[in-house]
Amino acid sequence: MMRQFLKKIGKLEPFEIKNSSITLILGAPSTFIYLEVMKYYNPDLIMPFYGNIIFACFFLLVGILPYLNHKSLVNYYGWFVFISTMSFQHYLTYATSLNNFSLDFLLVTYVFIFGSVLLLSNRILVLLYSASELLHLLYHVYNSNLDSMSESAIVLSLATIFVFSFLVMNGFLRYRKKLEFINANLEDTVKQRTLDIENRARELLRKNKDLEEFAYVVSHDLKRPLRNMYTLSDWLTEDKDNDFDEETTKSLELIKEQIIQMDLLVEGILNYSLQMDTEQVTKTVDVQHLVERIISVNSHKNVQIYIQKPLPKLEFNESQLLQLFQNLIQNAIKHTDKKNVEIHIDYNQTATHHQFSIRDNGPGIEVQYHEKIFQLFQKLEAETKGNSIGIGLALVKKILERTDGEIFVKSTKGSGTTFVFTIPKK
User: Minimal CA–CA distance to 425: which of 403, 395, 393, 396?
Assistant: First the structure.
């Protein structure tokens, strides 16, 4: 019980320990120098017990205690500050009386009293300090040879210093209590909000997983009837026994095209929604070999793909890296307006990123559409035929953003298009 009481009285906040420590460390040489200067200008001054040296060392010792990182020293540091300051204050009072209350000692006594009270952060310690000093000074004053006017002046000036220093310290303590109350409430608020955010994150993660599972199930369930419909339509158009007129045949071909488009759409949604599942599976990928495989599949007499510089090996998900290059290369092939397509793949690196670029000789993209092309289901062409559904570039951007990469486009109408993307180094 007593130990806890003493610990509570002597406990200081971390910033108070730091301030007190610095004050005492700086006060050690200051005390020695000031007392030595006093002796120099007044050789008749009495300095008992070599106090200028002893207390300079004492202050320095107490000042460095917190840097020892001992738990007990930190917990009771307020007591060390109290003992060191009160000891020196009583020494000054005794030395002042020995020197017949000379102005030199009175001045340093008053200054030190004011500073010491401000260092003490507990009212009980302040009252002990003030009461003991006042009694000690009264004892020496009334046992001295001073006249009554001098005695009254000394006592009143000391009392005034105590009153004002106590008022300042009291205001500081009230402000400190207010801050402690605010901090306590703030900590509770932060803890509650953190808990709410964690609960919300878990809920969002669960819902996201449900959506991924839903997309997977729906996509697979939709693909089966689509393929059945395509097989049936294909069988009807290829069956020689069916004597369809031209309009019916065109309608069946249109149905087949729409089924292909729907199948692509479902496949794209499936790929886009399930990226979270494989993004953590990474390995060292030979980008040169991977791109050469893509080129062998997409190159023919009207499509030429060139690698400008040797491509590196990097840590990435191979499936996703394949989708990155394949989507960008196929995007250049699909949207060309030239008879002969030229695609140039280039590579550079910075201190933190790998940078790849894919440049084509296509029609180019107007500046106002540079953001739109990366949005899901956004296409610049009005026609709905073909095998473009507006998912490829959105998928590329999603893969890169989830790995802290970036992608942007450099293009103007009629001047070809360059897609530049970056992948962080690991």
Answer: 403
At residue 14, φ and ψ (nearest 5 deg) are -55, -40
Task: Give 3-27 pLDDT, tens digit per residue.
Answer: 888 888 888 888 888 989 999 999 8
> Both tokens of residue 305?
């793909």
pLDDT higher for 322 or 261? 322
Domains belonging to the chain, first-starting first, are 2-146 (no CATH), 277-424 (3.30.565.10)
Q: Residue 250 pLDDT more than 80?
A: no
**Spatial separation of the C-alpha atoms in residues 139 and 341, rounded to whole Å:** 106
Give the Cα separation of 85 and 115 in Å (integer): 9
Query: What number is the average pLDDT over the span 183-195?
Result: 82
Q: Quickly tell me which residue has 């500073």 as its tokens.
A: 115
Spatial separation of the C-alpha atoms in residues 152 and 158, rounded to whole Å: 10
Q: What is the DSSP string of 29-48?
A: HHHHHHHHHHHHH-TT---G
Q: Is 191 helix (H, G, I), strand (E, B) or coil?
A: helix
Half-sphere exposure at residue 297, Cβ-oriented, CA atoms within 13 angstroms: 11
SS3 376: coil
b or e along 284-311 (b: 16 or more beta carbons within 10 Å of the residue's beta carbon)? Answer: ebebeebbeebbeebeeeebebebeeeb
> What CA–CA distance (Å, rounded) separates 86 from 21?
16
The pLDDT assigned to 191 comes to 85
Give the mean pLDDT of the chain: 82
- Residue 377's pLDDT band, with cuts at 50, 70 and 90, is low
Contact yes or no for 157/113 (Cβ under 8 A): no
DSSP state letters, 229-254: HHHHHHHHHH-TT----HHHHHHHHH
Coil, helix or strand at residue 174: helix
Alpha-helix runs per DSSP H in 42-147: 51-64, 71-75, 77-98, 103-119, 123-142
Cβ-Cβ contacts under 8 Å for 401 (sequence gap 6 or more): none
pLDDT of residue 226: 76
